[in-house]
Amino acid sequence: MSLSRHRRFPRSRASVRDARAFVRQVLTGWGHTDRLDDVTLCVSELATNALLHGAPPGREYCVSLTLDGSVIRLARDSGDRQLDVDIPEAGPEACSGRGLRIVREVADDMGISPEVVGKSVWVVLKTASPGERAGEAY
After folding, report:
1. What's the predicted TM-score (pTM) here?
2. C-beta of residue 13 within 8 angstroms of C-beta of residue 50
3. Based on the structure, what is the number of domains in the chain?
4. DSSP symbol at 93
5. Measured distance CA(111)–CA(114) in Å, rounded
6. What is the domain range of residue 97?
7. Separation of alpha carbons 92 and 18, rounded Å
């Protein structure tokens, strides 16, 4: 059985914090906390990218979270239609430019899909199956 939740966020700095709280609350409610820090890091970077590069001023972006068995899929939709995202090397003195590189290292898979309006940047993180989590409780 698959579980899914989504929420729209305004294009504001505070929304990054709110997106982190959203995924933490949802995953905790679903009882899937073994990758909680990784998912929180990924949504933080994807939401920040929506503010800097994706969602046009005055528009919102959407964060979707899906749990299917032992796979968590996190997606961030925005109005930007650019599908080829260049992830340049950030120099040692750079103050930004590492977000998607970090996400790519943390996630088990990552991609970009076109949407009716804009695109969806998504990541997949494998989590412990319910049986594995139950075994850890003993």
Report:
1. 0.81
2. no
3. 1
4. T
5. 10
6. 2-136
7. 30
